[in-house]
C-alpha cells in the first residue's frame, strides 16, 4: 500500500491532487480510505476521520455471487419503523422508544411525507406507527388504508387521543389510544421485527 508524504507534523498527508477544486467528495474519500489505517496508527485529525467514516458508510455493500453462479445476490435489507406524527415532542418520544429495537427509525410529520418515503423504500418498512390526526390534507386513517393496500406486509399501528370506531380501521391495523404505553408500542415493534421481511414493492 502506497503511503502519502509526511507533512510538518510527521503525519501522512494526502496527495495534494486529491484535494483539488472540482474533485468529487467520494473520490477524495476513497483516496483517504486507501491509507486510512496508516493515518489512524499515527493519529489522524478527527475532522479527517469523520469524512472517511461518512464516505465509508455511504459506500454500497459489495455484491456477492451466489453459490450457483447465477449472479449477484442482494444483502439483507434494513427493516424500518416509520413514525408519522405531527407533534414534534410525541414524534421524538416514539422515535427514541423505537430506537431501542432492531429497526431503523424514520420520522415524518405528515402522511404525504410518509407516502413519499414508502414509495422509495416501501419494501423495507416493517412498522408504520401513525397518529390519526396529522398536518396536511391526508390523515392517519387515509394513510393506513393506503399502506394496507399497497404495502400489506407492513404492520400498521394507529394512535389517537380520541375514540375510534373499529370499522374505520383497516382490518390489519392495531389501535393504541393516547397516551400510549411504551410497552404496548414496543410489543408491536417486536412483532413487526419478527415477521419475515416484506416484499419490495
TrEMBL record:
- Do you know which SUPFAM superfamilies this protein is assigned to? CheY-like (SSF52172)
* Gene3D superfamilies (UniProt xref): 3.40.50.2300
InterPro entries in the cross-refs: Bact_response_regulator, CheY-like_superfamily, Sig_transdc_resp-reg_receiver
Any keyword Phosphoprotein? Answer: yes
Report if keyword ATP-binding is assigned: no
Source superkingdom: Bacteria
Residues with the modification 4-aspartylphosphate, per the entry, are 131
Residue ranges of domain Response regulatory in the record: 80-193
Give the span(s) annotated as Disordered. 1-25
Which PROSITE patterns does the record cross-reference, listed alphabetically? RESPONSE_REGULATORY (PS50110)
Write down the Pfam families for this protein, in alphabetical order: Response_reg
Question: Which keywords describe this protein according to UniProt?
Answer: Phosphoprotein
One biological process term from GO is: phosphorelay signal transduction system
Where is composition skewed (Basic and acidic residues) in this entry? 1-10
Name assigned to this protein: Blue-light-activated protein
The protein's organism comes out as Methylobacterium dankookense
Please name the taxonomic classification of the source: Bacteria, Pseudomonadati, Pseudomonadota, Alphaproteobacteria, Hyphomicrobiales
Amino acid at each position: 500500500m502506497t503511503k502519502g508524504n509526511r507533512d510538518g507534523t510527521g503525519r501522512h498527508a494526502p496527495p495534494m491532487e486529491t484535494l483539488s477544486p472540482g474533485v468529487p467528495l467520494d473520490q477524495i474519500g476513497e483516496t483517504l480510505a486507501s491509507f486510512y489505517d496508516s493515518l489512524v496508527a499515527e493519529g489522524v485529525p478527527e475532522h479527517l476521520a469523520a469524512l472517511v467514516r461518512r464516505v465509508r458508510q455511504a459506500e454500497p455493500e459489495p455484491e456477492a455471487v451466489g453459490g450457483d453462479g447465477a449472479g449477484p445476490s442482494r444483502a439483507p435489507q434494513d427493516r424500518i419503523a416509520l413514525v408519522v406524527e405531527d407533534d414534534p415532542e410525541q414524534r421524538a418520544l416514539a422515535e427514541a422508544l423505537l430506537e431501542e429495537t432492531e429497526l431503523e427509525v424514520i420520522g415524518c410529520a405528515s402522511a404525504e411525507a410518509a407516502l413519499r418515503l414508502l414509495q422509495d423504500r416501501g419494501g423495507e418498512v416493517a412498522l408504520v406507527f401513525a397518529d390519526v390526526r396529522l398536518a396536511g390534507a391526508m390523515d392517519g386513517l387515509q394513510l393506513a388504508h393506503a399502506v394496507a393496500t399497497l404495502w400489506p406486509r407492513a404492520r400498521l399501528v394507529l394512535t389517537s387521543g380520541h375514540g375510534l370506531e373499529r370499522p374505520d380501521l383497516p382490518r390489519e391495523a392495531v389501535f393504541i389510544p393516547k397516551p400510549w404505553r411504551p410497552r404496548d408500542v414496543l410489543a408491536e415493534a417486536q412483532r413487526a421485527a419478527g415477521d419475515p421481511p416484506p416484499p419490495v414493492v
